[in-house]
Amino acid sequence: MLIVLAKATAKDGMVENIVNNAETLIEATRAEDGCIDYNLHNSTEDDNILVFVEKWESEEFLKSHLNQPHFIEFGSAIEDLLAKNLEISVYSSEEIDL
Fold first, then answer.
1. In which region does residue 34 sit, left (phi positive, over 0), alpha (psi from -120 to 50) or beta (all else)?
2. How far apart are CA 50 and CA 21, in angstroms?
3. How much of the chain, in percent, has pLDDT values that exceed 70?
4. Taking CA atoms, which of 9, 18, 88, 96 is between 20 and 30 Å from 40?
5. Any residues with CB less than 8 A from the CB of 31 and at least 6 apart, and which?
6. Level-2 CATH architecture, domain 2-92
């Protein structure tokens, strides 16, 4: 499984616009093959920071997601709302018995 953290830093006053644009993205992404979980969270330390937390079955499914029209449209819609580029980290994860 892959875990993706995508940090979005909004320009002042633009968080609500990003969240509104993300609603369609989140709904469509959750319906994609290979999507285990896909959520958007607000930072408790900085009102302008949002973090997408994603879980994917494999790299192939994640790569497919990056080419979906709803993902591309979201990127275009929020481009001017961001203070800086998205910061994306990808982690590999395996379940372990404790």
1. left
2. 13
3. 100
4. 96
5. none
6. 2-Layer Sandwich (3.30)
